[in-house]
Design brief:
Distance between the termini: 94 Å
Structural class: alpha+beta
Number of helices: 1
Strand content: 15-25%
Helix content: 25-40%
Number of domains: 1
Shape: elongated
Strand order of the largest sheet: 1-2-3-4
Radius of gyration: 35 Å
Oligomer: single chain
Largest sheet: 4 strands, antiparallel
Number of strands: 4
Length: about 150
Amino acid sequence: MAERKKESFAPPALGGSSLLVVFAVLALTVFALLSLSTVRADVRLGDAAAKAVSGYYEADCKAQEILARLRNGEKVPGEVELALFIAERVDSGETYYKYAVPISDTQELQVEVLVDPADGSYSVLRWQAVPVGDWEPDDSLNVWDGEDI
């Protein structure tokens, strides 16, 4: 009988490559989840910015309408809930108006103008978005002052 040669069979080395594939899949999954959370945060920020800009321009449009009525010499009784009027006569014959139009719950557009009723000319003294409400500092953080308790 012919003697059979014993062939040694070595299985392919899959341990290292399998570990590398598992690590790559895990890393790609983590990066995908991080990308998804970043996109969600960007969408929320974009929506908030769009809301703030549209609120400002709506208030700006209302303030421009009020200014146009004041330049034409009209009274603005329907806008009382939108604006607080202070009208004072100035020595030059111009009238000083100060009013505010709300932008959001936390901001308003404050306007100060001088209007000459004779020819409708005007000077804008102030056209500014300002925060509304009182600011209260947060003093609740207890910081160690270096002394033992």
